[in-house]
Design goal:
Layout (H helix, E strand, L loop, with lengths): L1 H13 L28 H10 L13 E11 L5 E7 L2 E7 L5 H17 L5 E5 L3 H12 L3 E6 L27 H20 L9 E10 L20 H5 L8 E3 L8 E10 L1 H14 L3 E4 L15 E4 L4 H6 L5 E10 L7 E5 L4 E6 L2 E6 L14 H16 L4
Parallel strand pairs: 3-10, 4-5, 4-10, 5-9, 6-12
Antiparallel strand pairs: 1-11, 2-3, 6-8, 7-8, 11-14, 12-13, 13-14
The chain binds flavin-adenine dinucleotide (FAD).
């Protein structure tokens, strides 16, 4: 009961913070403090730590270094992802879609839940529809459970939406609205913990598919200062990671001495996905375990009949909206740009008031612009100006960094 109330309280307060800014959650005024298992360092301690660390390598930001721009749609459902059984004709279908801005982060755990539901039907052969973050991991979990898996998909990597994501561990990014948070919290925690654990098993492996990197959250206003009202049609989101994963995720520390042209800086290690290498690893594992991928474009529910297997897990992401006529999926547009990789970078940052963030991914220095109007926006067309101006804002910040 206490937890339910707490989630609601946190959710209400969280409406004021920038989305996808798990890093800055600690800096949000008014959030209910949560007892940490390990005490957060004091500002003095963190300043001391920083002054002893190496200087930050310079980020080279200019529009002529843009090598890629991408648009992708987050499949958001206010009630959380649909992980549910449905009988469609003669097929036993388990849906596993609608993971908002958290698909990569929750993939292993959501795959496990879906596979457990599919196994109930007792068949050894399984079809997985979709070859994005959710389809691939679900297929691997099923193989590990001893099933023979075929993936059917319209697109496969690198042409799936998942491939165009930011690539960080953001397990509560647009995954559920505050209204439904308390009903979903337990399932979310299961998914997040299982996934988190699985990612750690890939650390230090060849190609570095998963890495931990320092991310700074920069702010112009002190903690506690009133924030400008948010003009957005978005619902409020709960801070599930902060509330429920506190024992396994790092603390945020206040950095009192830093080179950024911002009044306040907070630092927290973040887990990043090198999506190119990580996807390659997933695909290689899938094929190594006898998996097969077939190209198939499904138009509507009747097309489930064309699939050979009787048990099917549907991981079609945003595609489920058209395939099933499921209007509960709300498109949330996101546009990113990639700059020429800088493997020497071991940090990134998020600067909310300048609407830009940068992630030091090995497969490209990823720059994301936070744009108003992304919610309920399914526009797939690129807006090059959006990314170019984000890179220009980044260049201004980097140009003003001390040292
Ligand atoms: C800008 C942006 C940044 C993001 N950053 C992050 C992040 O940092 N961390 C994170 O965890 N998540 C992030 N996300 C969210 C994440 O990308 C999604 O949750 C995830 O991609 C969903 O994966 P999926 O496999 O369900 O869908 P998809 O990747 O879209 O895969 C769907 C699959 O189904 C197939 N399919 C669809 N319809 C049909 C059909 N009719 N017939 C046959 N096949 C079909 C497709 O071809 C594809 O193979 C981000 C999203 C965006 C837009």
């Amino acid at each position: 009961m206490q937890r339910r109330n707490f989630l609601k309280g946190a959710a209400a307060l969280l409406g004021a913070i920038p989305i996808n800014a798990a890093l800055s959650a600690e800096a949000v005024p008014g959030l209910t403090p949560v007892p940490a298992l390990t005490p957060a360092p004091t500002p003095e301690v963190s300043a001391h730590l920083l002054s002893r660390s190496r200087p930050l390598a310079p980020i080279i930001a200019s529009p002529d270094r843009i090598i890629e721009m991408n648009v992708c749609t987050r499949p958001f459902r206010p009630q959380g992802p649909r992980i549910e059984y449905e009988r469609i004709g003669r097929k036993d279908v388990v849906h596993n879609y609608g993971h908002g801005g958290s698909g990569w982060s929750l993939s292993w755990g959501t795959g496990q839940i879906a596979v457990d539901m599919a196994k109930v039907h007792g068949r050894k052969e399984l079809a997985v529809i979709g070859c994005g973050a959710i389809g691939l991991t679900t297929a691997l979990v099923a193989q590990e459970a001893g099933l023979k898996v075929t993936i059917y998909a319209k697109e496969r990597p690198p042409y799936v939406a998942s491939y165009r994501a930011t690539g960080s561990f953001t397990p509560d990014s647009r995954i559920v609205s505050a209204q439904y948070a308390s009903d979903f919290a337990a399932q979310w925690e299961l998914m997040a913990r299982r996934s988190f654990r699985r990612f750690q098993s890939l650390l230090g492996t060849q190609g570095h598919p998963i890495e931990w990197r320092d991310m700074y959250s920069l702010s112009d206003s002190p903690p506690g200062a009133p924030r400008p009202p948010v003009h957005s049609s978005e619902p409020e989101y709960p801070s599930l990671e902060r509330e429920l994963l506190r024992d396994i995720t790092p603390n945020t520390i206040t950095v009192t001495s830093h080179p950024f042209p911002a009044a306040f800086a907070y630092k927290r290690p973040a887990m990043l996905f090198n999506i190119a290498e990580y996807t390659r690893v997933l695909m290689a594992e899938f094929f190594a375990h006898g998996g097969n991928i077939e190209t198939l474009v499904m138009q509507d529910k009747r097309d489930f009949a064309a699939i050979h297997e009787r048990t099917i897990i549907n991981c079609t992401g945003y595609g489920a909206r058209a395939l099933l006529g499921d209007d509960s999926i709300i498109p949330v547009r996101g546009q990113t740009a990639k700059l020429i990789p800088q493997p020497e970078l071991d940090y990134g940052f998020f600067y909310g008031s300048r609407r830009v963030s940068v992630y030091p991914r090995r497969d490209g220095l990823l720059v994301q612009a936070q744009a108003e109007g992304d919610f309920n926006n399914d526009r797939e067309a690129l807006d090059p100006e959006e990314s170019i101006s984000a890179v220009q804002r980044l260049a201004e910040i980097v140009g003003a960094m001390k040292g």
